[in-house]
Amino acid sequence: xxxxxxxxxxxxxxxxxxxxxxxxxxxxxxxxxxxxxxxxxxxxxxxxxxxxxxxxxxxxxxxxxxxxxxxxxxxxxxxxxxxxxxxxxxxxxxxxxxxxxxxxxxxxxxxxxxxxxxxxxxxxxxxxxxxxxxxxxxxxxxxxxxxxxxxxxxxxxxxxxxxxxxxxxxxxxxxxxxxxxxxxxxxxxxxxxxxxxxxxxxxxxxxxxxxxxxxxxxxxxxxxxxxxxxxxxxxxxxxxxxxxxxxxxxxxxxxxxxxxxxxxxxxxxxxxxxxxxxxxxxxxxxxxxxxxxxxxxxxxxxxxxxxxxxxxxxxxxxxxxxxxxxxxxxxxxxxxxxxxxxxxxxxxxxxxxxxxxxxxxxxxxxxxxxxxxxxxxxxxxxxxxxxxxxxxxxxxxxxxxxxxxxxxxxxxxxxxxxxxxxxxxxxxxxxxxxxxxxxxxxxxx
Length: 445
Ligand code: NGQ
Ligand code: ZN
Known about the structure:
binds zinc ion, alpha/beta, 5-stranded parallel beta sheet, TIM Barrel, binds N-carbamimidoyl-L-glutamic acid, 2 domains, 17 strands, 14 helices, Urease, subunit C, domain 1, 8-stranded mixed beta sheet, 37% helix
């Protein structure tokens, strides 16, 4: 692991913005931070530094079908018809294509300023539904893509056993996802082994959704690892089905029946009553918001004002990866609220608070919590020669990055002191792109 000595005209540190900052990184950690210190000849100097943002929810393979579900079908296009398209795409993925797509997605994440990904991974079995010779083959491929790109990995192996509430049998199209509790425990063990070489990877647990696990299975899976991530209350049909099954709404059911606390991340949590919203906020769990995907799939809008008022924690995820952009996730998160409430600066709690600053700090803290890591040495530099950013400082820089820059604002990205992006391009972009091209030609061809 490298040691590196960086110097920034301005940097966002845990306690706020500072000037003339030297950050030394050694053995993958921040070894020292000096402020108000002149640049010296050993420094690699840049204009502005912010922490890398965690991407708390991704299905990397779905990057390969980005834009391929945007043509109108015969009737009632919806989340559920999109899912049929996604299932057909899944049929065609072999381990090599899966890894090539994941590497592309992870490189794009790094280029946009995401430095760690929560990979919610459920494509476990071969196309016939049989386990691979190594049952953790696909987890190994994700670890390889993370290793090649350098992105931080929180691997969330998914437990998936049913097609609907109350233990309905899985559908044929779901055959590549399926586990029982014994094979899942073995998968977790093998996943821990697979990510070990990455150094700072985390393995959590991911019961897919209340549709895909029984109450008993959920209770067991939640004891096996942390963090614990679950999809919940993304679609109205899911809310209705949950009420028909249990008499309760999904978030209510989960809060009543599972030990939801700061180890948990509830992905989407779109459809909540004010009572559910307050209770989720008070649980200390992170709401995993995926604004671009939620817009793309027609999910709905998260009840942010209520949630924030009760001190709720949140982070952002790129989920379907239909478009990978850290700043745009934050932008759309705020814009959804503005459009719904016909208001401005919804995420800024107080007069004088910058919305970009509030969004960024909350998504950083919530994302790190949800991905099971503390402070990191993952840094991003912003390009102050970008027209949207020039002349900006402190939180106005975050506002400019999030609301005013189209692309190209991210200059360099360091992961544990290793520079993985320079001038906005991943160091292995050409190789990764070449393999991605070949993989897609095969998958789509
Ligand atoms: C997923 N995606 O696991 O990829 C899901 C679709 C499902 C979202 N929920 C499958 N956005 O929920 O059944
Ligand atoms: Zn998801």
